[in-house]
Q: What sequence folds into this?
């Protein structure tokens, strides 16, 4: 035998409580279990090209559930959490139109336009792609006190520095925590050991911190109402074909990506023990607005 | 909470856990305070004891 369980002079009590005392964790992999469920309503409206206009709209309303991981410590029982999927995005709307602007010779407006003017203002086409999609649920994976109240903030109160109501969570006390400042809803003052008054100079500031060693989680890790920022993106393009000569075709394109420069941010910090709990990092996840012009010549 | 179902999603499981009642007993509330209400500096769960496995042949 080798390794610390067989070479150390001392060991812990919990090591000796293991079924195989000389081994620590024995991980069994390839244990097959888990399920997920996706339900959706899909709607699509398509207008085929007529009178110079075509559009494709698609809308998805969906829900994704996952039963693929434990809740609480494994030792307290292998309970699978029935939770929202990590990629649950309830709403997705996509609109993609194309429009041939009816200005120019042989068009509805400016039929008798001089050729030179038609060369500049006639025959333009517009195209676009708009996508708006819900953000993914924020994962609250760190155990803490939770008030049980809805902690989603209304849009007008939500900011990058406070994405949700952090007051509904309270970190578990550690050895140095002063529990007298804890809100009453945590119930921490009714725990055995709460009345302990630390002596001067004692590093142990409360008599309850060890109670949380056997904490078994009883609230979900993902919430439908608290999500990372959504995708809201519009790409636009305007282009025109010129026939300079019969065998010399030219296309001018002007395109903008993320036209309105909507930023998408990462998920907020969801660890109640962190000093940046509830804060969204101010770094843009999607590409900022891009403008591009191109001239394509085919011969 | 669901029950374990075989859907071919794999996950590592610790197969060497102590029984739940011992986990509660040695880490639980009843055993970790002294008469003054002060928690023990070391939980019974983490108390160091002589290692009976040490003499095993290598």
A:
């Amino acid at each position: 035998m080798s390794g610390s369980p067989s070479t150390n002079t001392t060991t812990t009590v919990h090591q000796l409580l293991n079924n195989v005392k000389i081994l620590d964790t024995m991980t069994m992999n390839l244990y097959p279990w888990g399920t997920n469920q996706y339900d959706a309503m899909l709607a699509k409206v398509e207008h085929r090209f007529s009178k110079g206009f075509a559009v494709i709209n698609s809308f998805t309303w969906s829900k994704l559930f996952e039963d693929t991981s434990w809740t609480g410590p494994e030792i307290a029982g292998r309970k699978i959490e029935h939770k929202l999927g990590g990629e649950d995005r309830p709403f997705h709307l996509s609109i993609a139109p194309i429009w041939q602007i009816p200005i120019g010779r042989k068009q509805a407006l400016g039929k008798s336009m001089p050729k030179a003017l038609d060369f500049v203002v006639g025959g333009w086409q517009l195209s676009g792609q708009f996508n708006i999609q819900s953000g993914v649920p924020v994962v609250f994976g760190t155990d803490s006190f939770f008030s049980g109240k809805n902690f989603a903030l209304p849009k007008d109160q939500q900011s990058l520095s406070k994405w949700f109501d952090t007051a509904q969570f309270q970190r578990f006390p550690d050895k140095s925590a002063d529990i007298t400042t804890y809100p009453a809803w945590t119930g921490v003052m009714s725990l055995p050991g709460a009345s302990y008054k630390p002596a001067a100079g004692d590093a142990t500031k409360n008599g309850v911190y060890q109670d949380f060693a056997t904490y078994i989680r009883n609230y979900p890790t993902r919430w439908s109402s608290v999500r990372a920022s959504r995708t809201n993106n519009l790409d636009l393009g305007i282009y025109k074909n010129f026939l300079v000569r019969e065998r010399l075709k030219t296309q001018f394109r002007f395109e903008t990506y993320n036209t309105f420069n909507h930023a998408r941010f990462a998920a907020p910090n969801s660890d109640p023990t962190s000093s940046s709990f509830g804060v969204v990092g101010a770094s843009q996840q999607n590409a900022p607005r891009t403008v591009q012009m191109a001239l394509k010549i085919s011969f | 909470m669901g029950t374990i179902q075989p859907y071919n999603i794999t996950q590592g499981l610790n197969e060497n856990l102590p029984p739940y009642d011992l986990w509660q007993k040695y880490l639980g509330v009843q055993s970790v305070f002294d008469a003054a209400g002060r928690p023990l500096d070391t939980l019974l769960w983490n108390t160091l004891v002589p290692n009976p496995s040490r003499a095993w042949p290598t």
Summary: Residues 16-48 of chain B form one domain.
